[in-house]
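Progress report, Aim 2. The chain analyzed during this reporting quarter is listed below.
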Amino acid sequence: MTKRAIIVIVDKGGSLKNINVKDFKIEELYKKCGFKKPDNFIKQTEWKAKYNKIQYFIEVYGKETGRANFENKYDFPPPLDNKLFFDSCAILAYNIDNNEKKYTDLPVELWYKLYENLFGGFEDLSSTAKEDEEEIDELKDVPAEHKTKHGYLKDGFVVDSSDTEEISLSEDDDDGTTEESEDDGEEENVDLGSELSLESYEEDSEYEDSKNNNK
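Predicted structure tokens for the chain:
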């Protein structure tokens, strides 16, 4: 068994880091994850994945029991995607050489590549670019008068801007007010002050006449 190996430690927050184990021993792996005892710290699964024509065997060690709020938040590939782990986990890699199991270095960058492989790979947009270019244009043979200036098919929802009526407001109307028609008539101005003065004068005259008649 290899005496030295670079392994991946997954902390409870889901972050990855490499540690270089000089004296590698599986039975002491729990210490690298910060545990004081090996209780319940076991191998959870083993995957087989290939990268650059090299076959890797990946092991994951961790605990399924622990304290509340110490759950590991990392998203592991199936079948560990539905399992709950606590605190830190360890990811190891080994190769088979002459029917002998030998642990090998697993840099985080290599794990990312194997991770994609185990998830079935992520879509490579560059690989589909050629297919997009060769895709048949269904509107290619549609007459120009049936398409908008942007190339879309005219229907009840998509219309050309030239097909819509353009409405503009004059400078007099752009403030949102309307003019009154001249036929509506003008409001009659009444000088209430003059009218009240006339009534007071008439009352005073009647009073003087009544006073003279009583003499």
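The first strand starts at residue 5 and ends at 10. The radius of gyration is 45 Å. These observations will guide the mutagenesis work planned for the next reporting period.
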